[in-house]
Amino acid sequence: MPVKAYDLTGRTAFVTGAASGIGRASALLLAEAGATVHCADRDDEGLHETAALIKAAGGEAHIHRLDVAGREQVDRAVAQAAATATAATPHGRLDIMAAIAGIMHSSPVLETRDEDLDRVLNINFKGVLYACQAAARAMIDAASATATGTGVHTRTGGSIITMASGAVDTGGPGLLCYDAAKAAVVQLTKTLATEVGPHGIRVNAVAPGWIRTPMTDHHDTKPHAHTGEVMARMSPLGRVGEPEDIAHAVLHLASDASAFTTGQILRPNGGVAMPW
């Protein structure tokens, strides 16, 4: 059982990108903390594996196969998750959104094509935007129902967590599309935090350093040295991150331990970047 402030028993979480990497690690940790987790991804096989891991550990998981770049798909899945009854929430609700799904693309600025930029922005920015919009609407509706005395929810507010990147602090050759999308996510996070704060909803971002995941492994194409090895040498801690390192940041922002935190960027990056 986690420390009380990190106990998510009775809460419902929606995690995009849950089929692998940071998304899977976050879904597993949120479930371990007691949340009912709705796992979303376009990778059907990976989704079922994540859900199976959660259930094998005694947690409750639901699956939503979707492409986060499709607004209607996201709206439908989040609404369904918010309406799903559980033993603790017989009328359903949504407490946590972790918008983690993302892709990488490498090309020099002078060789970047419209279709490359559009594909990355559609998933890494618009996909996060759609998830945030859908979650915020569900959370605001729940808060309004409670305030008027017509609803059944006993907890107002909620926590929305976006996934930025250490790239917003450092940049890097060949990563224009990825960096631009993650910078947009940071601005989305700050702006949304100001708009939904009056409803008790918190919005924060996690900006990881280099994390060992299937996505980064696939794009690690340095001819002489793996990017992970280079980043490990640059880090004061002497290593790159694992998905579980970022999952703990997600849990912190999802939980009451961060009840007075909103509009912030949490940077688990091994010390590679130390902005003011």
From TrEMBL:
Record keywords, A-Z: Oxidoreductase
Keyword Ribonucleoprotein among record annotations = no
Q: Which InterPro entries match?
A: NAD(P)-bd_dom_sf (IPR036291), SDR_fam (IPR002347)
Q: Which domain of life is it from?
A: Bacteria
- What GO molecular function terms would the record report? oxidoreductase activity
**Is Signal one of the keywords?**
no
> What protein family does this chain belong to?
Belongs to the short-chain dehydrogenases/reductases (SDR) family.
The protein depicted here goes by the name: SDR family oxidoreductase
Task: Tell me what organism the protein belongs to.
Answer: Streptomyces alboniger
